[in-house]
Amino acid sequence: MVNFIEAQKPLLSRLMKMAGLRPIEIELEPGTTMHIWAPKHHVGKKGTTISPLEPTSAATAAKKSKSSKKRSPESKPNVVLIHGFAAEGNVTWQFNFGVLVSRYNLYIPDLMFFGGSSTASADRSPDFQAGCVAAALARLGVARCDVVGFSYGGMVAFKLAEARPDLVRSLCVSGSVVAMTDAVNREAMERLGAGSSAELLMPETLKGLKALLSISMYKKMWFPDRFYKDYLKVMFTNRKERMELLQGLLTSTMDAKIPVFQQKIMLLWGEEDKIFDIELAKKMKEQLGDNCFLHGIRKAGHLLHVERPCAYNRQLQRWLAYVNSPAGGDQAS
Fold first, then answer.
1. Distances in Å between the alpha carbon of 232 and those of 96, 189, 204, 212?
2. pLDDT confidence of 73, banded at 50, 70, 90?
3. What does the record list as coiled-coil region(s) (predicted)?
4. What string of DSSP letters covers 150-177?
5. Could you read off the pLDDT of 244-256 as tens digits, one per residue?
6. What's the domain range around 102?
7. pLDDT at residue 257 in the model
């Protein structure tokens, strides 16, 4: 019997290729490979696999572009979209990438144990995920970028910005926190009536998946049970490793510190987010200081980029235009 969720993937891949993106496998080190959708100018005669220490077409093209008056693909600003916990990169951003590809070089990675990315490393921290994203971007010749992160991907984005201010020019984060402390996790689980984040985010039954989607969206949507069954089979793979990723997120409230970020940060929030409510976003804005901005989207929950893609895309485009302008950005890109 055809799995409807699996069946849509070839169509989604085709749409992304029509938009000028290509899937690339990057072996960061033996045992660690990251799958990433990247602009097609990275794909050369050797195909879509980049082995360790292999020079990239982007690096070569960048050198040539310095002497060329014609605007090259490498001259466009780079934008990285980092997915959340319930789906890989292309599925997460399927309603958003299309409005960005003409103006920006888009990079959509699959984090480790999502989509086509895997590792033999025992490290399950968001710091490790951020390091893998940074390494993949370096192999593709990306020296400066704006990063967009959703939920779990937002936590990875914060780690990336903290560790690599030379790489990350700005952040746009939705439905996330700088660090998942014991206190934040406990408050969220109590409010949602869940025993643990694993119980909430890694459902094994139709009831559990329906509950997750119900609290993730402002407007309750009906889907046939067949949809839920297919989604469970396709999207919740690598269960053991993902459970470990959730454990790797938790940090002691006593040890947690808010980093001093050099970048401008936009918190783009669903005003009806039940997982990380907007009051938490307001508190986080105060903690992050004057370089942090908050914009709420009405009638949107945690999955605001899926639930209200037009409103989300409009605000994201405004933010990216601002940080890439002389007034809002820098001249280091």
1. 23, 22, 7, 12
2. low
3. none
4. ETHHHHHHHHHHHH-TTTEEEEEEES--
5. 999 999 988 777 7
6. 4-46+75-252+262-323
7. 82
